[in-house]
């Protein structure tokens, strides 16, 4: 069995750290405080120039819910086209209707526009009213994977539902657990879900390198960064599992 680890990276430095640590794919984002928003075009281009592993920018115009205005949706279309033009391997999307169903018409248009790039449906899935119907809708529009925490705050809490999704998917789409995935629980998550792709930011905080700090501002200027050793540890756990149960 072959396993993959995707790293959610909030800047180019973190993406490069993840690549060096052995990650298989980068979900490139901005806005960590908002749960990930579309990175700027300069960052996407620079990442494409520096990364040799798969690059999937998230297409999310803002934080909050996944019910988008016509103007926001138009922006998403333009961002998908940009990612395609600069040679990304795929994009990450998610869009719902007000009743909690998948917005199939709009999502399908994004998938069609992205082709032949791969498309992941992100954790908007975890806000869907019926996850099993939502999965069938996502399969029908041509996405290749779903990122989910099993409709719980952390994937380990939603492991039972993730396993049910994996079973219903029956290899028609990849179900990729994400949220709170770390080296201390990835093996347990693997065993409980039967998933073979996993998603994590492996985030840590990097202190500001400024020599002068204006303490009167009372603001933390540390930044979210990828933890290289933590990624290496997770890669090692997955590799050991592969050796234990070869294809």
In short:
By secondary structure, the chain is of the alpha/beta class. Helices cover 38% and strands 17% of the residues.
Q: Give the biggest beta sheet.
A: 4 strands, parallel
* Total helical segments: 8
* Spatial extent as radius of gyration: 18 Å
Number of domains: 1
What is the CATH topology?
A: TIM Barrel
Q: Helix-strand pattern, N to C?
A: EHEHEHEHEHEHEHEEEH
Could you give the count of β-strands?
10
Strand portion, in percent? 15-25%
Percent of residues in helices comes to 25-40%
Plain-language structure description:
Helix content is about 40%, strand content about 15%. By secondary structure, it is α/β, with parallel strands linked by helices. It has a single domain (about 5-205, about 220-245), classed as TIM Barrel (Alpha-Beta Barrel). Strands 3-2-1-8 form a four-stranded parallel β-sheet, with helices on one face. It has a four-stranded parallel β-sheet with strand order 4-5-6-7. The protein has a two-stranded antiparallel sheet with strand order 9-10. Helix 5 links the parallel strand 5 (about 120) and strand 6 (about 145-150). Helix 3 packs parallel to helix 4. The longest helix is centred in the C-terminal third of the chain and has 17 residues, at about 230-245. It starts with a strand and ends with a helix.
Q: How is the topology of this model organized?
A:
Blueprint: E1 4-9, H1 12-20, E2 25-28, H2 41-50, E3 54-57, H3 70-85, E4 90-93, H4 104-114, E5 118-121, H5 131-141, E6 145-148, H6 159-169, E7 174-177, H7 186-193, E8 197-200, E9 203-206, E10 223-226, H8 228-244
Parallel strand pairs: 1-2, 1-8, 2-3, 4-5, 5-6, 6-7
Antiparallel strand pairs: 9-10
Helix pairs in contact: 3-4
């Amino acid at each position: 069995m072959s396993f993959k680890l995707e790293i959610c990276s909030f800047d180019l430095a973190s993406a490069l750290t993840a690549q060096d640590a052995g990650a298989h794919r980068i979900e490139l984002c901005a806005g960590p405080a908002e749960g990930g928003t579309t990175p700027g075009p300069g960052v996407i281009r620079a990442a494409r120039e520096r990364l040799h592993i798969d690059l999937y920018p998230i297409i999310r115009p803002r934080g909050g819910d996944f019910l988008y205005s016509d103007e926001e949706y138009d922006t998403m279309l333009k961002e998908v086209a940009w990612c395609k033009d600069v040679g990304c391997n795929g994009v990450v999307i998610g869009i719902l209707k007000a009743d909690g169903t998948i917005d199939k018409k709009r999502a399908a248009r994004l998938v069609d526009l992205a082709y032949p790039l791969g498309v992941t449906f992100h954790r908007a899935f975890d806000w869907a009213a019926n996850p099993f119907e939502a999965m069938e809708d996502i399969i029908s529009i041509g996405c290749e994977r779903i990122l989910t925490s099993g409709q719980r705050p952390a994937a380990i809490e939603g492991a039972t539902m993730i396993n049910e999704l994996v079973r219903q998917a029956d290899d028609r789409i990849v179900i990729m657990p994400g949220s709170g995935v770390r080296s201390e629980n990835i093996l347990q998550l693997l065993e409980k879900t039967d998933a073979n792709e996993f998603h994590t930011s492996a985030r840590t905080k990097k202190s500001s390198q400024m020599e002068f700090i204006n303490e009167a501002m009372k603001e933390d200027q540390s930044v979210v960064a990828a933890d290289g050793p933590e990624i290496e540890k997770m890669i090692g756990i997955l590799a050991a599992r592969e050796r234990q149960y070869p294809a």
